[in-house]
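quick one, 407 residues, struct below
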Amino acid sequence: MILFKLAWRNLWRSKRRTWITISSVLFAVLLALFLESMDRGSQEVMVQNVVRFSTGYAQLQDTLYFDESHIDNAMLCDDDCMEKLLEDFPNLAYTVPRLESVALAAGDEKTRVGFITGIHYESENRFNNIGERMREGHFFTGADDEVVIGTGLARSLDLKVGDSMVVFGQGFQGAMAAGKFVVAGLVQHPVPDLNERIVFMPLHQAQWLFDAFDRVNHLKLVPQRLRHHQRLVDAINAHPDYEAFKAFTWEELQPELVQTIEFDQAGTLVFLLILYVVIGFGIFGTVLTMTLEREKEFGVLISLGMQRRKLAQVIFTETLIMNFLGVLFGLLLSIPVLLYFYYNPIPLGEGMEDMMAEYGMEAVLRFSLDPQFFYQQAIIVFCISMVIVAYPVARVLRLDVLKAARK
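---
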């Protein structure tokens, strides 16, 4: 306790020197958090845009569907099945059913391969706001013969809102799938390839078309907290009532996206390592200056009988206090800064807007507020600072008292 009091008093004998050291740690924490938040934000946006229009954060399938994604392996899951899921797993917010298959889509003169997707519009729109991507017309009004197609497919087939489109293909277990539908609306799908093929229709209509009543290819599972999707998947796979099904996370269904994120994280790690080196030298320069300025003081204290070990402990305590205050103030200052950029993303410029819009993304640089990286970066900068404290401690233990006293 005496050493702490002595260290605290020493700090404020030279307030300028103390605040310079604290500021160096503060800005190191702020810079590291800013970079990590920007990188995490970009990754979260990438995952959100890919996952919400494809696999979902988690997905429930028939046990055979993962190895052979065919409509014949569509699972039997009606409204009662979906309600039971919500009852059995309280951390499940809602489900998004889909029945998907490939069939020929034809206009008056042209034919294209279409990706027929039966959806429950309310849950689909709740998950990915697909209704906001309508360009003409409207989504389903309740009529059984209405479909909504991608703008790219509409151009290929020369179809407009109100025109008729014929669908012909193979349904469940070899059944004939054929029907004539009215184009109720045109949607701009964020995935360019799907925009050239997508055909949305009500789920019950798709089940009739493919003769797959009460069946869906998969259920997207939306947890109460999106970050807890792995817990939800583990709970379903361990439940004895769902042995005929298999739940997957988006990481298992989108390995290419996982690899992309890992590659991005590797690049960020290299940049962070360079930043840590710069931070380390910056803090070391401050500590070095502080130590050299106080060498005469150290020499006098040792000459008056203070043990080197005790003096080294005081220096260590001083540095510990300054590093702690620097990290604490850095965290406190970073919160309003990152909150501002979280709610006010940095625009990337007009030239990027059209390109980003094609993929359903805004041309902005988003930031993340994931609490995990806050304490991670704070701990890393604190550890760097505490490694540097070895220099003044070693300097005191090896100090030449006579030379120091003459300075």
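The chain has a mean pLDDT of 83.
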